[in-house]
Predict the 3D structure of the following.
Amino acid sequence: MFDKDILPFIGNYKLKEITRREIFEKVLDPITDRGAKTQANKTLSILKQMFNFGVERDLIQGNPISTVKKKSVGGLEKSRTRALEFEEVIQVFDRLPKLGISQQVIYALKCITLTGCRPIEVTGAQWQEFDFDKMIWTIPAERVKQNKNGERTHKVPITQNMIILLDELRAAFGYLNSKYVFPSTATNKSGPGEQPVDRHSLSRSISRKQEQLGVPKFVPHDLRRTVATRLGDADIAADPIVIEKILNHQLQGVQGVYNMQEYMEKRREALGNWSNKIKVI
């Protein structure tokens, strides 16, 4: 965001010269005008953080956008509620391979659907994170959404269908000798396999092929919500606490303070039942 929308337009200004009007006209309004309202709100948030840092370090006397609200920039955001039905999941993964979408993207979308992990947690996966003796995938804290109490890794039980998916990935991309599970084969910035597939390529691929997929619009993160929702269906009926643990959500209230149980076997059972049901592999 800094490189694309901030620094090219106000990067050469001195701190004392930057006004709220300049920030709106040169940074925030152009983002909103291109239709990226959520991005405009995110940019507002990181600009506030930057200026607050400057105030704390006595580099600037005040934050010029301290009172600006999201509703004045990109507008109030509504939480997404899209969760795919079971039949939609089956249809999506039946059609994806026929639409010219890269293997890495399809495998990454399958991985999200099998685990309930966030797209950024999946696309950056490295082989060293997988313990096949304990059948646990440990996602390091730098790729995990942080809670207010500090860093925490995310441990994901490896199901049999995940083993099959990982074996197929090794067979397809092993020639690259990449440390990444979902390696990029692009060569514009680095050699093949030196970077993971761009997580934004998942949403771009789905967006381009939305009509051919034949289901109402969804984004990759909706697959995570789908997992959480379908795990609660009557045929799987996973405990809500187990679902929260699968999503790596912090338990609330008394549970969050006193319940240190990881529910790993129950998580493994729930994800195993789900992966056997959808058979996306």
